[in-house]
Design goal:
The chain has about 375 residues and is mainly alpha-helical. About 70% of the residues lie in helices and about 0% in strands. The protein contains 16 helices and 2 strands.
């Protein structure tokens, strides 16, 4: 709750721009305008009368949101004897609905009046039907990604899920090279290889790790497969967004509203197709607990936290935040879920953290062409 309130307060500082709210916290889409990716390091906000740099506050919120979301989502998917788990599709509907409502209030704050907010929404939705049609594709992909993530949290411990999920960096890079003809630096290619090696090492079976944590090897294999599919969906959606909607999308909060609206409709249709009987018999909120509600709120506010971070922080600080989130998730898994840290996992997580850092701080730089004077 604290993370959500602080992030909403910081969000009002953002200028309108074409941010991709579906992007995950450690990657910044190149479709962002320059005003959204510059890091005004001198920007401060007073907390209890003490001026603090916004970039450090936003990064602290990112670490908390990212780590707590993983831990609470895992806790909400642990089967307790005599109790049923909630249907994953209902969580996606609630999360997208919360994102829709929160984005509307931010649009309202931005335009200072209800009439101005409604007019802006009409101009960027009804007035741009072609853009709305294009947004349908990433909205479907992000809904699939979120559903796969929630489902895989039932089969994987929080630490393994968090580390494996970093493969979204790999999928986004590959899709950007193939579809956008983007160049990667030699260090970025090396980091992708290190990333793959780290994830593979983590998945290597051990004699005690997963079974002791309550997961069979078949559960782990299925969970990892779902995470890989979620990473593929995330990577393709981000690249598609940049390729098809660059320069055409609405402001950041209206864009969040549009994707939130599509997310509610798509996830609700999927829920009715897959679990209609179960939902009608037991109720929409059957199986929910306080941890489930907290996980949903953290997931819904993730896009708002990303918007603050890409405004005020640079790639080096974001990579540090991602690395800290992995460490916090691993420590939390050990403390709350009795996760056993094996040598393979420790070394693999270290490789993933290293790869994430290298990929962020060593981008491709186009060679300069020297022209000779006549």
């Amino acid at each position: 709750s604290v993370c959500v309130l602080i992030s909403l307060c910081l969000c009002v500082h953002l200028q309108e721009g074409g941010c991709l709210p579906g992007c995950l916290p450690d990657t910044v889409p190149d479709c962002l305008p320059a005003t959204m990716t510059e890091a005004p390091g001198d920007a401060t906000v007073k907390v209890c009368g003490v001026p603090l740099a916004i970039k450090y506050i936003s990064l602290a919120i990112l670490v908390l949101q990212n780590s707590l979301f993983i831990l609470f989502m895992r806790a909400s998917r642990i089967k307790v004897e005599g109790e049923d788990l909630y249907v994953p599709g209902t969580a996606i509907v609630l999360s997208e609905g919360m994102k829709l409502v929160a984005s509307f209030f931010l649009v309202l704050y931005e335009h200072k009046s209800l009439g101005g907010a409604i007019q802006a929404i009409q101009d960027d939705t009804i007035g741009k039907p072609r853009v709305m049609k294009k947004l349908l594709v990433p909205a479907i992909l992000y809904t699939v990604q979120n559903t796969l993530a929630v489902t895989s949290a039932t089969l994987l411990d929080a630490a393994t899920f968090q580390v494996t999920y970093q493969l979204k960096v790999l999928t986004a890079a590959i899709f950007s090279v193939i579809l956008l003809d983007r160049k990667l630096s030699s260090m970025q290619w090396v980091s992708l290889v290190i990333l793959m090696a780290g994830v593979v090492l983590i998945q290597k079976p051990t004699s005690s790790g997963q079974e002791a944590a309550g997961h069979s090897y078949s559960d782990q294999l299925l969970g990892v497969t779902l995470v890989l599919l979620a990473c593929l969906s995330s990577g393709f959606a981000g690249v598609y967004f940049e390729k098809m909607l660059k320069g055409e999308a609405a402001g950041i909060w209206i864009l969040n509203m549009q994707l939130g609206f599509y997310g509610v409709v798509i996830s609700l249709c999927g829920l009715l197709m897959s679990h209609r009987k179960q939902v009608l018999e037991n109720g929409f909120f059957h199986g929910y607990s306080s941890t489930a509600y907290i996980a949903i709120v953290l997931q819904a506010m993730g896009g708002l936290v990303v918007a603050v971070v890409v405004k005020y922080a640079d790639n080096i600080l974001k990579s540090f935040a991602t690395s800290i989130s992995i460490v916090v998730s691993c420590v939390g898994s050990v403390y709350f879920f009795s996760f056993i840290v094996t040598v393979n996992f420790a070394f693999g997580a270290l490789l993933v953290i290293t790869a994430t850092f290298l990929y962020s701080v060593y981008p491709y730089v186009a060679p300069t062409v020297q022209t000779s004077k006549a």
